[in-house]
Specification:
- The structure holds 2 protein chains of 2 kinds.
- By secondary structure, chain A is mainly alpha-helical.
- Helices cover 79% and strands 0% of the residues of chain A.
- Chain A has 12 helices and no strands.
- The two termini of chain A are 39 Å apart.
- Chain B is 70% helix and 0% strand.
- The termini of chain B are far apart.
């Protein structure tokens, strides 16, 4: 009996250590955003100077605005595409689903850096060689780059939700002479709604945090905030970086809390929510 | 009214991904067979060859590939060793009412911006930072902390960054096993460790596989961790590819490196799967136990859905567990 509890204690202690490890750098960043010194690494006393300089510096403000804008548009694109695809996969199974799921899998497992270096020359080709001016626009390029993985994620989530629900309601609707579009709008879409909302918010946060693809496809003038942080890495990190990171972390957490709320109200367990949020 | 084919709804997503994922990656594959013409060109494809692949494997770059593979394998194993007890504790030992909270706690670092949390480690590890002064203060090290911009720092960074991706699938797997089967094993007289080794762990295998893949694949292509923590000493292939596109303007070589990265990932995963399969061969043979009737000799297949639904699902897994 004694031995049992000892191994339990060891397990608990280890878990606490690992949780502390997981939060160490986040705590450091949040604390650093109240650093009134000039450099991020050297503590110069407690103060709100970093947050004040965010208000004064238009560059960071603009970067955050670009991120929110592209995040919202990319999330809309990914949600529309992913929802339709998810519904098709769940309700019209067939051999094509295998091929399509294979494509989604490829999109999710391809290293981001490969996507990034591939998208850069491709957008240059579309924008300059083919003369489609749209693809020289900074916001469009970021939206395209951010929407790829997000589309796959939304498709998975919507499909998973509908596969778990019987198609009887839709069949009943069709039996009652509803036109296919009416069935889609009045039955299928409401059924899928929690997954659609959760997918939208996940797509938004994914886009908000995208760094690697954004760093490659961005055009100067429309720099999203992670890319601004990346460039600050070379010119020297100041406490403003920590301050903007803290604010964006709060924004992400609010979005995720909403996802959890939406899924919980739709009847998912904590484990199911966790699975949805890791995208599988 | 005519019904549209089932896949019609998926066509927009399919087209979007083909135009902005398949086509660009195909172009990179095409570039990788070309060359860099002169100083100002980025790529040319009038002469096709495998020369860029040979160049990408020349000693200078080969060391980076080796380093990446080392960090990838070591980082994945460390994540597994560190994350497995935590996931087990969360799913089995922690009070069930706390599980939601614990999951949320793992999720927060996972959803914190990747770059930001890596910068957090840069602040912690900085030679002039507080950890360094603390360690010197209590006399553990003489002189400032000398970890930042080394391979060790990159390893720490990747283990940190990908650990939630290991813990979450393992948690899901352990959570599923938890309950009647473990109780049955204990009722049948198996001890605590035996239950873990013979029941819990084998049944959690899909979670282990998912976790290893979810960590290893993105880790190999990591660009940010090595950029922030690695400096010149802790280079990874991701940076190599990026620098060919951004600074060296050699798209042909960069493309070949990107393709080689993917090839290395695929080969390593295949090799890993083979090793696991061979190692577990005697184990599986020893624990094979046939429950109920032996499988019927192959008979002409009867088409129809009743055929598949009649056979009990997953007999193999049950056999292994029951042994």
């Amino acid at each position: 009996m004694n031995r049992r509890s000892r191994s339990d204690v060891a397990l608990t202690a280890w878990s606490i250590v690992v949780f502390a490890f997981l939060f160490a750098p986040i705590v450091v960043i949040i604390v650093s955003s109240f650093n009134s010194g000039r450099l991020l690494v050297a503590w110069g006393g407690f103060g709100f100077d970093a947050f004040l300089s965010l208000v004064e510096k238009p560059a960071i403000r603009d970067a955050v605005w670009v991120s929110i804008q592209t995040g919202a548009i990319a999330a809309v694109v990914a949600t529309v595409l992913g929802t339709l695809a998810g519904i098709a996969m769940a309700r019209h199974p067939g051999k094509w689903v295998l091929w399509f799921a294979g494509l989604l899998l490829l999109v999710s497992v391809t290293p981001e850096i490969v996507d990034a270096v591939a998208l850069l020359p491709w957008l240059v080709f579309l924008g300059q060689d083919l003369g489609i001016g749209l693809f020289s626009d900074g916001v469009v390029r970021l939206v395209v780059g951010h929407s790829l993985f997000a589309t796959a994620v939304v498709s998975y989530i919507v499909r998973a939700r509908l596969v778990g629900l019987d198609a009887q309601l839709e069949e009943a609707s069709a039996d009652l002479y509803a036109k296919p579009f009416a069935t889609f709008r009045r039955v299928t879409l409401p059924l899928a709604m929690p997954a659609v909302l959760a997918g939208f918010l996940l797509a938004f946060t994914l886009s908000l945090d995208n760094t690697v693809i954004a760093a490659f496809v961005q055009v100067s003038g429309t720099t999203p905030w992670p890319v601004y942080v990346l460039s600050a890495l070379r010119s020297g990190l100041r406490p403003e970086i920590a301050a903007v990171s803290t604010i964006m972390l709060l924004l992400t957490l609010v979005a995720l809390a909403l996802v959890a709320l939406v899924l919980r109200r739709a009847g998912d367990s904590a484990t199911q929510i966790a699975r949805t949020m890791t995208g599988h | 009214m005519r019904r549209s084919p089932g896949f019609a709804l998926a066509v927009p997503a399919w087209a979007w991904l083909v135009i902005f994922f398949v086509a660009p990656v195909a172009m990179v594959v095409w570039f990788s067979f070309g060359y860099k013409p002169g100083i100002f060109g980025t790529h040319a494809n009038d002469v096709l060859s495998f020369d860029r692949y040979v160049e990408a494997l020349s000693p200078t770059f080969f060391a980076t590939f080796q380093n990446t593979l080392w960090v990838g394998v070591a980082g994945t194993l460390l994540c597994l060793v560190i994350g497995l007890p935590v996931a087990y504790w969360m799913a089995v030992k922690a009070p069930p009412s706390r599980r939601g909270l614990l999951l949320a706690l793992v999720m927060v670092p996972f959803w914190t911006n990747f770059l930001v949390r890596t910068i957090g480690w840069q602040v912690i590890l900085a030679p002039e930072g507080w950890l360094s002064s603390l360690l010197q203060g209590i006399g553990l090290t003489n002189g400032p902390l000398d970890l930042l911009y080394t391979r060790g720092a990159v390893l720490l960074g990747v283990v940190y960054n990908y650990l939630p991706l290991m813990i979450l699938p393992l948690f899901v797997a352990f959570d599923r096993v938890n309950g009647p089967l473990r109780e049955a094993s204990k009722d049948l007289g198996a001890g605590r460790w035996r239950t873990f080794a013979r029941v819990t762990l084998p049944l959690a295998r899909p979670g282990v596989i998912a976790g290893v893949l979810l960590v290893f694949i993105p880790l190999m292509g990591d660009y940010i961790t090595a950029t922030v923590l690695g400096g010149a000493k802790g280079n990874m292939v991701g940076q190599l590819v990026a620098s060919q596109f951004q600074t060296a303007q050699n798209w042909a070589l960069g493309s070949a490196m990107a393709m080689l990265l993917i090839i290395v990932i695929v080969l390593t995963v295949a090799a890993g799967a083979l090793v696991v399969w061979i190692v577990s061969l005697p184990f599986r043979a020893r624990h094979r136990l046939v429950l109920g009737d032996p499988p019927a000799p192959p008979s002409p297949p009867v088409p129809g859905p009743s055929d598949t639904s009649a056979t009990p699902a997953g007999p193999r897994e049950t056999q292994e567990v029951a042994a």
